[in-house]
């Protein structure tokens, strides 16, 4: 049918976008080994400084060359746009931006995120091989003005750092070094029981130190591994050998490639407990990269294969940002006269009129350029693009909102009309935003049809956000949005859903941080069906970060109106007769507008349906602007993708909760999903920030969960509410040195994370729509793969290992699994190649915990395993979960422990003064003893005595703390700015 036709008619890039989850906004294309349309955008708050542009050119030019080398001649940068803010002065070399915007850019130059300081980092929340959101670079990083020292000294050459981050962003590969703060240790036990540095290729020469004190590392008594502050320091001045990897230590001169599946210098280390292995299930970064759509056609043939080129130098355009331009396009076909709920005698066109009237009056930020069109069998322009500056502009636009219905449905006509509005007077339509609402299938035989119009909009660089009204809406609406990098929303028509208003409001704010900042935040949004005489009360919390220009709004459906009141925390009552109320009889809306700062605390909203004849649909919203003193708490929700074409779908709901750039953790985040049947049914889903299931990173303020409760083919509208009912939410401000590996770890900002309690608050955000195209009954969803298996404690004396992981559910990360299968082996390779053939851990081996009684998803599972005696030095564990229908999730990440130890070292040796009380019974074994660096073949070898008899008590001397000492000089890395080749 037309779906296939549409797909083939679009450009390859657009098709890729619609198939990829997550980042839908990038417009970077990749053809004939060249990345084009990369956008590097400077945030409006960055002070004007043209040097930033020159430095960007240098960095990206170096990066392009390094990309060509590290992808083995497969890729480099071609066309790059640098977007400067509107506030910067005009210069002859600046062109006007067309499609480029800050919010859809790939690389963002903005003030430091407190969590990462000047570390370059990539914002990502999606999985292995999937695109991230954007790369963040600070102006000081770009200008080489970081207070700690030269950027090259700290992180290595900027072009290389750029490619490290680019690889996160474009290819969905992850760090190969340890990140203790995220649960990836810096060291682990290899299969010979030796402590090994978490990395890719393991023969990088260097030594270990406590990065804070520059002294010796101590041992974590629970795991036997070096403590979290213990860092590996590579030798920067060793020759050739000891390749790292682009995702490991890109600053080491010999690093010229990603780790791959070969045995050579770039051989991938699948055993390291790093994020790459965890998220990508032990795959090498090069394997992941070459399997992305950039390097592999859908039929599996390699594309963009190696090619020698004369120059890898990119070309730069400098473009200056423009004001946002919106065109609102409304369906006025005959079906808009339908009444969704017979007991509420209101046609769709009236609900649409009410909602859009309110949007135009209250939801569109000042300074926007807005046009409007309507369509049925053909389209008509309602207004040209008009700048919204005054109340009168706003009212004029509001008075133009249609409330009519007749004729057929030519969605393509509406889209092409919008394109014409954006193109008037010879303007370039690129970068314009079309928000289109439609409730039906496109009529047969219309011209231009949806397929043709979509192709035109894709060509023109226009973004379409689609809002579908009713399940009967054309199934291609989500695809129009995906093909044009837009978002999709859905309103079923249910009387208890306000997703029409929420979707339209979000469509205005999304991908437009200027609009988002200039418009108010949604604190509360609800629709209720009030029977004759019925009342409804709600409490809404106003926190101290908002309160300016607060608006309480009521919408209703019957001529009799509603009786309502709003009561402030101190008891002031606002009603229909208060001076602060504006009232529109035609749109059936009343709004209390409080100028200045409203009282912080609980406001009570009361509403009653006074009609003795008719039930009413009543819409209640509370919006408020940030109070000037501090950044507001914000919540933004979105979905992995809208079109779900395969069964079972991986449908993820995300919500990011932040204050400024700092994450808020511990909040209560609940998504509400309205199903396709125009019933009152809704499903709720708790989103978690626990680094398990759908959630990629723990405690980053992004909460995630899979939605699995599908009941049939059709659309599911999703919105998220964020609250802090028990005061568990905390603002996390931290300085983590882990966003990019430091060339000189002793210069790493000392990782400090502080948590401040957050007041009670509430926020609401529309996430969008899942359109499920192929529902199949039955339990199609396995438990999700466990990715956070960890060793909590090892006991040598008992040979027990305490393991912990976050429980998955019956369906991905929802519900409750029915049993676990834990396996063990002496090495990861055999476990990876044959999980089912590895030795099972059975119930009789557990000294605590259970394999057959899983806790609900999201809770911690603990088991203690008594490991049978064997000659294996290392034991590797992995776990899978199964549901009651026999669906099994994939094997978890692997963890290793070692039972290899010496029985008597330390005794009698110099400085040995008997056992240290604090450490008796601690585990550790092979960890202790002075570490040696042996050539380049192993990172850290531990002096091991020949004594292998197993004893009950281990005696430890403090002298023997892990780490190099007499054998090695203290770190004396390069000082000051360094020539990249100086230590080759
Ligand atoms: C849209 O129009 C084109 C050109 O007339 C036609 O080939 C195509 O089949 C139409 N698509 C649909 C879904 O009607
Ligand atoms: C609210 O006030 C307006 C304007 O004064 C009035 O027309 C309307 O009837 C009132 N509505 C109710 C329900 O009292």
What's the SSE blueprint?
Elements: H1 2-9, H2 12-19, E1 29-31, E2 34-36, E3 38-42, H3 51-70, E4 76-77, E5 79-84, E6 94-96, E7 107-109, E8 121-123, E9 134-137, H4 139-142, H5 151-155, H6 158-171, E10 187-189, E11 195-197, E12 206-210, E13 230-234, H7 275-279, H8 285-290, E14 315-320, E15 325-331, H9 348-363, E16 369-375, E17 379-387, H10 391-400, H11 411-422, E18 433-438, H12 450-460, E19 463-469, H13 477-483, E20 488-491, H14 499-509, H15 513-518, E21 521-530, E22 535-542, E23 546-555, E24 563-567, E25 573-575, E26 581-584, E27 589-597, E28 601-608, E29 616-626, E30 633-639, E31 643-644, E32 652-659, E33 662-665, E34 668-674, E35 682-687, E36 702-706, E37 714-723, E38 730-735, E39 752-757, E40 762-772, E41 790-795, E42 800-806, E43 819-825, H16 828-833, E44 839-841, E45 846-848, E46 860-866, E47 874-882, E48 895-898, E49 931-934, E50 938-942
Parallel strand pairs: 2-4, 3-5, 3-7, 5-14, 6-14, 7-9, 15-16, 15-18, 18-19, 19-20, 31-40
Antiparallel strand pairs: 1-2, 8-9, 10-11, 12-13, 16-17, 21-29, 22-28, 23-27, 23-29, 24-25, 24-28, 26-27, 30-32, 32-33, 32-36, 33-38, 34-35, 34-37, 37-40, 38-39, 41-42, 42-46, 43-44, 43-47, 45-46, 47-48, 49-50
Helix pairs in contact: 3-6, 9-10, 9-14, 11-12
The structure holds 2-acetamido-2-deoxy-beta-D-glucopyranose (2 copies).
One 2-acetamido-2-deoxy-beta-D-glucopyranose binds next to loops.
């Amino acid at each position: 049918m037309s779906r296939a036709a549409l797909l083939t008619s679009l450009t390859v890039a657009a098709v890729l976008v619609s198939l990829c989850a997550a980042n839908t906004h990038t417009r970077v294309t990749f053809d004939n080994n060249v990345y084009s349309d990369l956008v590097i955008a400077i945030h409006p708050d960055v002070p004007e400084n043209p040097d930033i542009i020159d430095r960007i050119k240098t960095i990206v030019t170096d990066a392009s060359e390094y990309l060509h080398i590290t992808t083995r001649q497969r890729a480099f940068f071609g066309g790059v746009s640098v977007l400067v803010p509107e506030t910067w002065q005009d210069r002859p070399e600046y062109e006007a931006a067309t499609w480029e915007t800050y919010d859809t850019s790939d690389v963002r130059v903005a003030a430091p995120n407190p969590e990462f300081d000047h570390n370059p980092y990539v914002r990502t929340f999606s999985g292995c091989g999937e695109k991230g959101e954007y790369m963040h670079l600070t102006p000081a990083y770009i200008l080489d003005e970081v207070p700690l020292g030269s950027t090259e000294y700290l992180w290595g050459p900027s072009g290389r750092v750029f490619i490290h981050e680019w690889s996160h962003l474009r290819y969905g590969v992850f760090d190969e070094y340890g990140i203790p703060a995220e649960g990836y240790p810096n060291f682990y036990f290899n299969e010979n029981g030796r402590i090994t540095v978490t990395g890719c290729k393991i023969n990088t020469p260097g030594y270990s130190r406590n990065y804070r004190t520059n002294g010796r590392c101590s041992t974590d008594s629970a795991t036997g591994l070096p403590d979290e502050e213990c860092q590996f320091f590579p030798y920067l001045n060793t020759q050739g050998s000891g390749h790292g990897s682009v995702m490991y230590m890109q600053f080491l001169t010999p690093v010229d490639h990603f780790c791959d599946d070969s045995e050579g210098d770039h051989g991938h280390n699948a055993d390291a407990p790093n994020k790459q292995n965890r998220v990508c299930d032990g795959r090498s970064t090069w394997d992941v990269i070459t399997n992305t759509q950039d390097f592999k056609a859908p039929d599996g043939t390699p594309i963009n294969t190696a090619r020698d080129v004369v120059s890898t130098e990119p070309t730069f355009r400098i473009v200056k940002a423009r004001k946002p331009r919106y065109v609102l396009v409304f369906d006025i076909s005959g079906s808009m006269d339908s009444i969704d709920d017979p007991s509420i005698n209101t046609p769709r066109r009236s609900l649409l009129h009410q909602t859009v009237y309110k949007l135009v009056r209250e939801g569109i930020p000042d300074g926007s350029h807005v046009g409007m069109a309507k369509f049925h069998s053909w389209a008509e322009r309602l207004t040209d693009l008009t700048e919204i500056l005054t109340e009168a502009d706003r009212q004029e636009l509001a008075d133009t909102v249609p409330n009519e219905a007749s004729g057929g449905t030519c969605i393509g006509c509406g889209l092409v009309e919008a394109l014409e509005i954006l193109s008037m007077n010879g303007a370039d339509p690129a970068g314009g935003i079309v928000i289109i609402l439609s409730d039906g299938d496109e009529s047969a035989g219309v011209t231009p049809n949806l397929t043709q119009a979509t192709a035109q909009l894709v060509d023109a660089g226009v973004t379409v956000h689609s809002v579908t009204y009713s399940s009967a809406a054309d199934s291609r609406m989500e695809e129009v949005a995906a093909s044009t990098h837009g978002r999709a929303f859905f309103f079923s028509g249910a009387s208890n859903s306000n997703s029409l208003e929420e979707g339209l409001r979000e469509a205005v704010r999304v991908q437009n941080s200027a609009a988002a900042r200039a418009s108010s935040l949604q604190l509360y949004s609800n629709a209720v069906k009030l029977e004759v005489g019925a009342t409804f009360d709600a409490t809404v919390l106003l926190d101290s970060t908002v309160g300016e220009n607060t608006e309480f709004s009521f919408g209703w459906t019957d001529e009799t109106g509603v009786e309502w009141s709003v009561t402030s925390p101190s008891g002031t009552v606002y009603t229909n007769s208060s001076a602060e109320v504006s009232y529109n009889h035609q749109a059936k809306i009343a709004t209390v507008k409080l100028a200045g700062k409203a009282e912080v605390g609980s406001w009570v909203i009361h509403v009653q349906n006074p009609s003795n004849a008719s039930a009413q649909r009543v819409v209640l919203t509370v919006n408020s602007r940030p109070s000037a003193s501090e950044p507001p708490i914000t919540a933004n929700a979105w979905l992995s993708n809208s079109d779900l074409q395969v069964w079972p779908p991986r449908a993820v709901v995300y919500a990011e909760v932040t204050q400024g750039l700092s994450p808020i953790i511990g909040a209560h985040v609940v998504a509400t999903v309205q199903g396709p049947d125009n019933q009152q049914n809704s499903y709720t889903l708790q989103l978690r920030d626990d680094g398990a299931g759908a959630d990629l990173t723990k405690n980053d303020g992004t909460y995630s969960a899979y939605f699995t409760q599908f009941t049939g083919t059709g659309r599911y509208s999703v919105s998220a509410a964020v609250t802090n009912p028990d005061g568990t939410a905390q603002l996390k401000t931290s300085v983590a040195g882990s966003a990019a590996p430091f060339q000189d770890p002793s210069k790493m900002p000392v990782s400090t994370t502080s948590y401040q309690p957050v007041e009670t608050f509430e926020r609401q955000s529309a996430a969008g729509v899942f359109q499920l195209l192929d529902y199949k009954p039955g339990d199609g969803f396995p438990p999700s793969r466990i990715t956070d298996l960890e060793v909590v404690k090892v006991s040598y004396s008992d040979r027990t290992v305490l393991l912990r992981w976050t429980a998955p559910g019956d369906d991905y990360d929802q519900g409750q699994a029915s049993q676990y299968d834990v396996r063990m082996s002496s090495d990861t390779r055999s476990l990876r190649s044959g999980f089912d053939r590895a030795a099972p851990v059975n119930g009789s081996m557990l000294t605590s915990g259970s394999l057959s009684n899983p806790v609900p998803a999201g809770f911690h599972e603990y088991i203690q395993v008594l490991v049978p005696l064997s000659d294996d030095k290392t034991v590797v564990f992995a776990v899978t979960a199964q549901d009651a229908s026999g669906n099994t999730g994939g094997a978890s990440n692997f963890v290793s422990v070692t039972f290899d130890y010496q029985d008597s070292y330390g005794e009698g040796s110099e400085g040995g003064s008997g056992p240290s009380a604090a450490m008796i019974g601690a585990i550790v074994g092979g960890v202790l003893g002075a570490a040696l660096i042996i050539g380049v073949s192993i990172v850290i070898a531990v002096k091991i005595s020949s004594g292998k008899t197993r004893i009950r008590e281990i005696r430890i001397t403090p002298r023997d703390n892990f780490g190099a000492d007499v054998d090695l000089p203290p770190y004396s890395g390069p000082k000051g700015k360094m020539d990249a080749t100086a230590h080759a």
